[in-house]
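To start, an entry.
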Amino acid sequence: MFLMRTVKIEYEVVIMSEDEFGKRFPQYKGYALGDGKTLFEQVMAPESYVAAAIATKIGLPAVAGVADEAVDECHRLGREISPFDKQFVGAVICALMESNGFHKTGKKKAIPHKAFSKGEFYSHTDFKLPPLPNAVEV
């Protein structure tokens, strides 16, 4: 007989501020601080990192992990996701992944989402998710 249990998993994620992001991607800084602020906050988040890292782990571009949330955020703002928004989301994901030890492979892969087409594939030599040694039974 299997007994279910609850386990709390903790992990650390490096999250950039809009200003730090703007230093890496100056072309998007104004958008991250203005009209794209909530989209930035949605994507530059620990949950998005986990989703993007899992997408990467199963062989998809990192953006695949946040595509639904990005589209939903644009809908919440009363608009469709634009080509600029998609590029912005890709830049935010790049900053998020690279600040957490991933690197670009130079390979583009198809994103299984109707609003997106292709995205960067990332790699991490020591990638482990979640950090199970920190799991604690609750």
Summary: Residues 7-137 form one domain. The longest helix spans residues 83-98. The chain has six helices and four strands.
